[in-house]
Description:
- The chain is mostly helical.
- The protein is built from 13 helices and no strands.
- The protein has one domain: Farnesyl Diphosphate Synthase (Orthogonal Bundle), CATH 1.10.600.
Amino acid sequence: MPGDWGFPNPATPPGSSTYYSLRLAPISRRDGLAALYGWRYQLQSVLVQVTDAAVAAAKLRWWQDELARTVAGTGSHPLTRQLGPVIDRLGLPAAPFLAMTHGAAAIIERRRPRDPDALTAAAEQDLGALFELLTRAAGDQDPAQIDRARRLGAYTTLVYQIRDCGWLLRRERYEFVSTAQLTARGLQPADLTRPTHRQHLPVILSELAAHARRLRGERRDPEGLPTPIRIRVRLADLLLDELAASAFDLADQRIALTPLRKLWHAWRESRQPPPRSPTAIENPHPWNKNPHP
């Protein structure tokens, strides 16, 4: 329905990784989780749809103010009216929501990461912050688990940046490459779009992939985390393998997993043991108005 940010919604379109990660999550939580994804979707929409930096910055400030209103119970947007009760019921902190706005602001302001650590920190302000919210929403408040979720969210962000590098370059967005990588090669960011320097891009992406894999850690690392996170990480693993198989020749092509392949692997991951948090199992939150899948 128009204005309904339950599942599915514009942030979780059928065929996407987000769709399958929530489609196979517990039914009672889908609407609430879809609203959390909606917050990131709105911020990313500003980056994609608004070309004027001043206008984009103003829109981000509006969302920051709307978050404050939402926490106070006076949110006005259809998304935040649906998101507010979820935040209140679960006691979700504002910090991860704000982290996503800060990460988007850095992109608008053309702040490039200096080194691999800065790349990781920026990625943690994207899906890292969202994965923290998903973990807390499942009832897990263990700091170690939340740190794992943030790290795996950062890993997933880096994989998507590698996949989308050609599109990002055409929009003069360079958040996936560190200043250190460019300096070591005597390059400016715009050089990566020039035919005389394009041979550097696969090497840079290969380095980024190696950094992402180190961040990822062991392949069974997501065990015990909520189903949506485990599915997203598994699909990111598969996607990164496909990108590597192309020798990171991605300036003019965008490689993606097919919906059927996503569904198959998402289903297999959903059959793994559930999260370890007793709260998440014993006290499911009645978020979904429709009891049927």
